[in-house]
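Lab meeting, item 3. Inverse folding demo.
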């Protein structure tokens, strides 16, 4: 079975991480599937909104560390970069339903979503510095703009996690719902019933002020990320992470 479930119900397309045994850790192939699905949805008039969700107890553990170490994303043509670009430029409403852990890109991708619903179990973390890396997905621009510099710096530089209540207080999510999937579906269906061009135009206007700045920051982040991921510091951090994981 595919590690990305892709289905459409009515005017809403659903993309679901489907690797629950690995806490939905993302591989290159999964990034490629997500990027292609977003590209297809952008060009399909029958799709009025997209919901990103997950199978199992967690949203995603972020990158699959083994796959990531074997094939680090050091090129702007990489599957990771292609997916992040697809997120930035996706013209239609993007809704996310989050439960359990949302690690690394599992949190940064939410900054590109128009509405995020989280279950009470949701736990968010941005451990890039802890792994000898730098944040990605334009998050060094978007996150402090959302939550304030001090709060963003503390989270990025310590690697601390935060819960759904904190995410709601920050404005990272729109609401907490015990059934995040059902709540996200209800919102997506409500949006899908709206006049489609008015929806697209309104999203474009909402994003216009920051779009070029985010694109520029994403490029800078990626250039530094590509250097960092090949560094001794990152390799040492990855090895410590794998050793800690193996001891559990």
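The presenter then showed the designed sequence:
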């Amino acid at each position: 079975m595919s590690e990305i479930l892709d289905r459409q119900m009515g005017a809403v397309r659903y993309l679901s991480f489907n690797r629950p045994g690995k806490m939905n850790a993302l591989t290159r192939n999964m990034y490629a599937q997500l990027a292609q699905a977003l590209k297809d949805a952008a060009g399909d008039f029958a799709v009025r909104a997209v919901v990103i969700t997950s199978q199992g107890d967690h949203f995603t553990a972020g990158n699959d560390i083994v796959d990531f170490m074997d094939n680090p994303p050091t090129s702007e043509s990489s599957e990771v970069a292609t997916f992040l670009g697809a997120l930035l430029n996706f013209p239609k409403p993007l809704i996310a339903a989050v439960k359990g852990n949302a690690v690394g890109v599992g949190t940064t991708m939410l900054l590109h979503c128009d509405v995020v619903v989280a279950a009470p179990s949701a736990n968010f973390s941005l451990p890039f510095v802890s792994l000898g890396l730098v944040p990605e997905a334009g998050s060094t621009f978007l996150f402090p703009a959302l939550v304030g510099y001090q709060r963003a710096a503390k989270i990025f530089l310590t690697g601390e996690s935060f819960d759904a209540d904190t995410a709601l207080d920050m404005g990272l999510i729109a609401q907490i719902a015990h059934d995040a999937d059902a709540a996200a579906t209800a919102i997506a269906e409500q949006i899908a019933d709206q006049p489609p061009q008015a929806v697209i135009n309104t999203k474009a206007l909402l994003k216009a002020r920051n779009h070029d700045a985010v694109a520029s920051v994403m490029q800078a982040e990626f250039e530094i990320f590509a250097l960092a991921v090949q560094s001794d510091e990152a390799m040492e951090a990855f090895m410590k992470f794998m050793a800690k994981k193996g001891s559990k």
